[in-house]
Amino acid sequence: MTERAAAPIEVEFSEPRGPIRWRRWLGLSLPLAIGLVFLLAGVLADDLAPHDPSFIDLSARLAPPVFDGGTWDHPLGTDDVGRDILSRLMHGARISLIVVAIVVPGSAAFGTLVGMASGWLGGSTEQILMRIVDVQLALPAILFAVLLGSIFGPSLRNVIIILLIWTWSGYARLVRSEVLSLRERDFTTASRALGAGGWWIMRKHLLPNVVNTIVIIMTLEVAIVIQVEAALSFLGVGVPAGTASWGRMITEGREVMIVAWWPIWLPGLALLTISLTGNLMGDWLRDRLDPRLRHLH
């Protein structure tokens, strides 16, 4: 009796459809909606805010939110000098947007350039650049901010400078580790054998292979930048006094937190919400863009 060979089993892989495919996007819908509200509130603060964020009205001092017995004239209540909290939250979102729009792309671009140059060139160039990164990481950001604030006074410019100095090194170290692996790949070796220059290889081969990682880190960095800006303003070395900033609102709300909860809780909840939103969006992008995690979803 002769045995018949078993026919090979063909397995076809296809993009998940139906409920599975919808679940992939469900994790992004809520963070994206919250991020859109945050963006619109900051960009359109002048048009959407019901009051001037700096207008002082002592007759409306510590008015409660509408859901705690207040009126719709001040939907989220007022602070200890009668300034409208909703208006200050919206203009505080604008401060955060300005900081994020400058710091995140700036630090990502500079850190990526340093990391790629360090990983590709190697030798003394790598040693010098990485020692600079090590020194930068050793600098205590908060103490450095206090020093700048003491010398130059609180200002939004100083906050942006501090964050740029503090955040670029993370990109540099991560990109360098990726480039060290990529420069040994076959496609990189083939390009060098064909006479391609270093800058051409970095632009055509290395950068496209690290851009997914950079995008993920940028998304996660949004929440960190907003938190640090709020922390600096909370310590009094961020934006000047009187400026509508979430960190400044929290430090001002401490003085009346025993008699009124909303001046400190509402900006704190806004800061917590946008921080969680940035982290959720970063996690979603990591799961979608990282091929090692894509099959798990």
Describe the model.
- The chain is mainly α and 297 residues long.
- It has eleven helices and no strands.
- It has helices at 19-43, 45-48, 85-121, 123-138, 141-152, 156-182, 186-193, 198-234, 246-253, 262-289, 291-294.
- The longest helix is centred in the middle third of the chain and has 37 residues, at 85-121.
- It is elongated.
- It starts with 18 loop residues before the first helix and ends with a helix.
- Mean pLDDT is 80; it is low at 1-15 and 293-297.
Q: Which H/E pattern describes the elements?
A: HHHHHHHHHHH
Q: Which ranges are low-confidence, i.e. pLDDT below 50, for 5 or more consecutive residues?
A: 1-15, 293-297
Biggest sheet architecture: none
What is the count of DSSP helices, taking H or I runs of 4+ residues? 11
Backbone CA Rg: 25 Å
Tell me, what's the shape?
elongated
Number of strands: 0
Structural class: mainly alpha
Would you tell me the overall average pLDDT?
A: 80
End-to-end C-alpha gap: 47 Å
Helix content: 55-70%
Question: What percent strand?
Answer: under 5%
Give structural attributes.
0% strand, 297 residues, mainly alpha, 11 helices, disordered C terminus, single chain, 69% helix
Task: Outline the fold blueprint.
Layout (H helix, E strand, L loop, with lengths): L18 H25 L1 H4 L36 H37 L1 H16 L2 H12 L3 H27 L3 H8 L4 H37 L11 H8 L8 H28 L1 H4 L3
Helix pairs in contact: 1-3, 1-10, 3-4, 3-6, 3-8, 4-6, 5-6, 6-8, 7-8, 8-9, 8-10, 9-10
Care to give the gist of this entry?
This protein is mostly helical and 297 residues long. It has 11 helices and no strands.
